Amino acid sequence: MTVATPKTKRNLIEVARQLFAKKGVDSTTMNEIAEASGYG
Length: 40
Prior knowledge:
The chain has one domain (6-37). The chain is 65% helix and 0% strand. The protein has two helices and no strands. It has helices at residues 6-23, 30-37.
């Protein structure tokens, strides 16, 4: 398993926050977060 760098973590969190604001927490998937972050 690869350990995420602090920069990667910040990016994932920021993208997740944006998607949560747009779609809601219950309607956002981990795959969507990964894809929007460029890691999916």
